[in-house]
Amino acid sequence: MNGGLPSPDREGPGIVTAAEWQHRFIGELRMRDVPGVGIGDAIAEVEAHCADAGQSPQEAFGDPIEYATRVAQTRGVPKRQTPVKVLRVSARVALMLAGILTTLAGADGVAHHRDAVVTAGSLLAVALGAIAIPVVVANLRLRGSWKTGMAMMVPALAAMMLPPLWKADVAHLPAGWALGCGLAVTAASYWPTGRSRLVDRIVDPRPGHEPSPVSPRATILLIAGVPLGVFLASVAAVLLLAR
Fold it and tell me: Which residues lie across from 117 on neighbouring strands?
């Protein structure tokens, strides 16, 4: 959708191409939960203005992140934190942490030809993450910025530190079963986010424009990227710990 955006004649500090500007703009709007229809409207307005004024989007609208922040305030869907929504987020975080920790335990068991061990520290980590991470996200009001990710990393890292500190055995599971189930649970925890990206496509309101296609690469990445990343990280962790 960037055919109508003039590009700057040169690149340099603080200067981005039209395509890069639009990529950052769309990414920030996505992070701020602006629906595809709203993103399409915003892009159409940017392209029309730039075509009429003969300016690049950087010249006309400034920094794409800052402009996306302003656009999101008018085109975004208001997010009310209800108990049901908080519980849903907590459940997804619990699933994600349970999946990651189970995958790690399963990979360790497979590598050392023994059962996967569920420890008290792992269970406490899941409970802590399910409570702390949604609370951080709901109260900081930094959605879509790098500070959100940094804020989420604090309780996540704190939770992941518990299993090595409290190694009391709670249950033993077949290693292969734990590895497979851990990957499946991790994928299930991420699927609602990935599915929303596949379904909520950017729609250009101008006549003759079709919704933006979803590339096969993006589909594969959204569906398999997270569990594959967890699996590779688990293998790497096991190899490092085995030294």
Answer: 172
Query: Can you list the alpha helix ranges (DSSP code H) found in the chain?
Result: 18-31, 36-53, 57-61, 64-75, 83-112, 120-140, 146-160, 162-165, 175-199, 216-242
| pLDDT score recorded for residue 223 | 58
- The H or E element containing residue 56 is none
Residues 151 and 210 in one domain: yes
Residue 174 contacts residue 116 (beta carbons within 8 Å): yes
Residues in CB range of 215: below 8 A, 6 or more apart? none
Report residue 8's pLDDT band, with 50, 70 and 90 as the boundaries: very low
Question: Domain range spanning residue 95?
Answer: 83-242
Question: How many folded domains does the chain comprise?
Answer: 2
pLDDT tier at 174, thresholds 50, 70, 90: very high
| Collapsed DSSP state (helix, strand, coil) of residue 172 | strand
Pairwise pLDDT comparison (19 vs 174), residue with the higher score: 174
Measured CA to CA, the distance from residue 102 to residue 185 in angstroms comes to 9
Q: Are 100 and 182 in contact (CB under 8 A)?
A: yes
User: Does 93 share its domain with 212?
Assistant: yes
Both 56 and 163 in one domain: the answer is no
Q: HEC profile for 4-35?
A: CCCCCCCCECCECCHHHHHHHHHHHHHHCCCC
Residue 1 lies in a domain: no
**Pair (65, 144) in one structural domain:** no
Q: Does 3 fall in a domain?
A: no
